[in-house]
Amino acid sequence: MSSDVTADVSAFTPSLLADLQAGRPVFWANPARSAAPEIQTSVDGRAISLADVRAAQARFVRFAPLLARLFPELQDSAGRIESPLLPAPAMQQALGLPASAGALWIKADHSLPVAGSIKARGGIHEVLEFAESLALEHGLVTLDADYAVLADAPARALFGRYQVAVGSTGNLGLSIGVMASALGFRAAVHMSSDAKAWKKDRLRKRGVQVVEHTGDYAAAVAAGRREADADPYAYFVDDERSLSLMLGYSAAALHLADQLAAAGVQVDAAHPLCVYLPCGVGGAPAGIAFGLRQLYGPHVHAFFAEPTQSPCFLVEMVAPGASVYDIGLTNRTEADGLAVPQASELAAQAMRPMLGGVYTVADDTLFADLHRVRETQDLRIEPSAAAGFSGPHMLTGTDAGRAYLRQHHLDSAMPGATHLVWTTGGLFVPPEEYARFAERGAALAATQPA
Ligand SMILES: *Cc1c(COP(=O)(O)O)cnc(C)c1O
């Protein structure tokens, strides 16, 4: 495959390519971003809109009574899986971001219950959608029924006939595996052999079958997909091409809009919303960016954050079909949630007219920011989840970022801007492992000021 895409790499400007290959952090502005109030979006020939975002949200609401019954940690939220929106003035100061550049906020998805990462949104949504379709088809519920009955014997017998499988670097497997097995499905998670031991252990403890594959993430996905294709009672969650996943993520926008309103944060031409989203295959950030764009139109500016060695979404936007290997990168990063060589085409398709841009982050910066956000805000996040924090500087403090601000007439609006950093995972990282991350980060933060 790489031989016929190598030519596409000519779509990179020589200086961007040189920076990427040297592992220097870059900011890339999407030249195809439209400022139109509304954009017709379709993926794989299907139009998607705010109605789809609301439908995903409604599904979470229908399942809430069941989830409250299955997960003690969801009792307090009556079965809703959500995270706080936090002001972050101390972190803003630690990052050296002046008040004239706007205000820093954190969307704390690293604390999402059940899954411990942003995957609680997309991954769980897809499992629920599959369970719901089976339950409806077999007459176990209607759309307005109390779904708590799906914890009873007839539903469990039905679900137990099916296997739910997924290929994953870790966090997606955790969310799918935990939810599928809680509902009574047989669950199988295909992981690359370098996936973290604690993630495999956590799954096995819940009765999930963990299948280890040598090779990278894409290889684990391909193997899982092949195995499930051969079994009519197997349902494969396909991270690289799933609309259900993306729409599950998109529902985050509706809850966030309520939180922003409750916090008195305005979003309009004088108060742009700049959102910084860690990106792996692109499904999670694309879903959220899509949902926000439906609500706020061109006043939301979504930026995806990728490791310097794994900028697969940037590569896909510039040279469709190419992988990070095609430009000579290694895909080696400590940010295991973002270590993806090839982006989701579906996500790229959806994002082409609405993505602000993509920037890359060195691993050392991830660790330094992981340390800073604990020091300043007392938040414990994993390395992948720190990728958003360099966004405000990349946008407001680099030549390429400033060019974006000028091009979109944002210069004078920046004092009123909201910089929303999405922290995407970390709740279940074992304390010993977190201590190692933090120690490495503290040493780096001491030597390299933000
Ligand atoms: C999966 C993941 C992401 C990105 O999601 P994609 O859909 O792969 O782009 C970001 N952060 C963390 C911690 C993740 O696990």
From TrEMBL:
Which cofactors must be present for this protein to function?
pyridoxal 5'-phosphate
Indicate yes or no for the key word Lyase.
yes
E.C. number: 4.3.1.18
Which BP terms in the Gene Ontology apply to this protein?
D-serine catabolic process; isoleucine biosynthetic process
Enzyme class, broadest EC rank: lyase
Give the highest taxon in the source lineage.
Bacteria
Q: Which GO molecular function annotations are given, in alphabetical order? A: D-serine ammonia-lyase activity; hydro-lyase activity; pyridoxal phosphate binding
Q: Which UniProt keywords apply?
A: Lyase, Pyridoxal phosphate
Q: What is an example of a Pfam family matching this protein?
A: PALP
Tell me which residues bear N6-(pyridoxal phosphate)lysine.
Answer: K119
Record's InterPro entries? D_Ser_am_lyase, Ser/Thr_Dehydratase, TrpB-like_PALP, TrpB-like_PALP_sf
Which reaction(s) does the protein catalyse, per the Swiss-Prot or TrEMBL entry?
Answer: D-serine = pyruvate + NH4(+)
Tryptophan synthase beta chain-like PALP domain location: 82-391
Q: Which SUPFAM superfamilies match?
A: Tryptophan synthase beta subunit-like PLP-dependent enzymes (SSF53686)
Q: Which NCBIfam families match?
A: D_Ser_am_lyase (TIGR02035), PRK02991.1 (NF002823)
The family this protein is said to belong to: Belongs to the serine/threonine dehydratase family. DsdA subfamily.
Q: What is this protein identified as?
A: Probable D-serine dehydratase
Query: What is the source species?
Result: Cupriavidus pauculus
Name the gene: dsdA
